[in-house]
Amino acid sequence: MKTAHLTSAHPRRDARIFLKECSSLARAGYDAHLVVADGLGNSAENGVTFTDVGKASGRLSRMVGAAYRVFAAGLKLDADVYHLHDPELLPYAVMLKLKGKTVIFDAHEDLPRQILSKHYLPVAVRKTTSVLAEAGQKSICRRLDFVVAATPVIAQSFRAMGVASEAINNFPLPGELEMSAATRSRKKNQVCYIGGITTVRGIRQIISALGLVKSGVRLTLAGNFAERELEKELMQTKEWKHVDATGFVSRDKVRSILEESIAGLVTLLPTRAYLDSLPVKMFEYMAAGLPVIASDFPLWREIVDDADCGVLVDPEDPQAIADAIDTIVNDPEMARRMGENGARAVREKYNWGIEEKKLLAVYSKLVGPPQKDAGPVV
């Protein structure tokens, strides 16, 4: 049974697409393929076969040229089921259905709400684009076989359209980031933020908070800035001297940063796209035994308070972020307890081993069971 995942926008080793979904399918016995557009060539890993159509030269080239090349390469595979990961591929989903294929769309984000959060666009443009995106997505997805959604709220929005959908949450791989007691000796006087860096993810407030902390803590900032102008602006602030910016890092480096950090920051601003999100970095901090300093959103409050694994703050208030950092840094016993609680919650509830079963059940229902029994998630 051949499966083909298609992406024109994500890297081949994307955690959700490759490390979790494709690798789980391959381990379960499906003939798993992943078509990408990164220019790194054809290869295979974890039982997954990569087909590369070449890297696009820019955003427009990616959304038009690379998207078509990914579709064309995927079509040549003649797979039993196609699993598409980018909105720009949705028009090709219709073409695949016309050819009698089983098609799944993977909604990583709530696209209409995400567009509304793009503050670099004029308000009128945002609203119009959001409405058009929602209408187009609804029209196309109603013709597909299933929508896999990254959160329960996104899944519910598709079900409200009459589309079969289930949340396959992007939770950490079991054991990938779990730390031993010995790693506590590696802790430095630092907190970390790992992931894409944008205004709406609260980076201005985080940097401002560094000038207000009393514990002398440093920030390890691991990720790429979405806007070069934002990076230049923040590098000119007096607080930047407290920042160690690494840029994008490998998974091994992520683990090293987590081992050395006292707490992890996930203080996204209260935009419509984030209020009901489940940021994977929050769960990765928890998996690594780090207390989280997180935005006080209702959904996040339920998770953090239930597990007693961190401190909730107003993400728009640098002083509140600074106070939370000082509270954790100055109370090692509380930090240890919260970290252990978060790691336990991931082991028991928020991990890919649980989500993998849901993914395999969707595939089994749509195209039949794999050729062999699934092995354990590693």
From TrEMBL:
GO biological process: lipopolysaccharide biosynthetic process
Species in which this protein is naturally found: Mesorhizobium denitrificans
Domain Glycosyltransferase subfamily 4-like N-terminal: 22-168
Segments forming domain Glycosyl transferase family: 185-343
Keyword Transmembrane helix: no
Name the record gives this protein: Glycosyltransferase
Listed GO MF terms: glycosyltransferase activity
InterPro entries, A to Z: Glyco_trans_1, Glyco_trans_4-like_N
Keywords, alphabetical: Transferase
